[in-house]
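User: quick one - fold this with S-adenosylmethionine bound?
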Amino acid sequence: MKSSYICNCKHYDFYNKNFLYWENRIVTSDEKSIIKYIEKQNYKKKLKILHIGVGNSYAYEKLNVNHIITGITLSKGEIKKSKSYNDENYIVYYCDKMSMNFREIFSKFKFDIIIDNNLKSYSCCQKSFEYMFENFVKVLNNNGIIISNKNGMNWVKKLKPKISFNFKNFFHHKMREIDGNVENIFSMEEASKISNKFSLKLILENDVVIFSK
Ligand SMILES: C[S@@+](CC[C@H](N)C(=O)[O-])C[C@H]1O[C@@H](n2cnc3c(N)ncnc32)[C@H](O)[C@@H]1O
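Assistant: Sure. Structure tokens for the protein plus S-adenosylmethionine:
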């Protein structure tokens, strides 16, 4: 499915090829601390969790016993890894969170938690970032939370397609990280502004940042 956007920025299309990215890399310490926070809450009911940027599916592995996890990513390699769990409840969609497709895919969904440790890190522009944030708020249940990480919010990258070679995969398509836009460093000041804009409560607990509806 071709992605469409509200802005005119250049976007690479990672959909048509089998792009490898984070499926075999270790989970970031930023995501780990988010998962620890969620585990510590000892929620008494099964929550619906949307995981933005599933990577190696660490969040699924840790949380799926008590909760239902749905994910998105730009990497078909990560989607293939998610399918290897053979769990029909764990669906990972190819979806650019900045795109209009997000709204379409999740128009009938509601989540209790959205995990995104790199909220603004890969954004193309402010307009699409705010559009993305609005869409996240739209799919949140009342009392739901968007949960991120202070270090992850300070990390900025862009993704570009690359053809790579190794003896396991021979020539293959890979997503390459290049330096991103420093304007995508998501400061606590901006987090506070956007919370006010969407009437969310901003909570900082150690390095975990929570936007609560
Ligand atoms: C650096 S990896 C981190 C993986 C995992 N969250 C972790 O912390 O270990 C970034 C993840 O975000 C995803 N990603 C990057 N830009 C995205 C976008 N615009 N829409 C959806 N996913 C995106 C990538 O596909 C990848 O899964």
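One thing worth noting: The first helix runs from residue 29 to 41.
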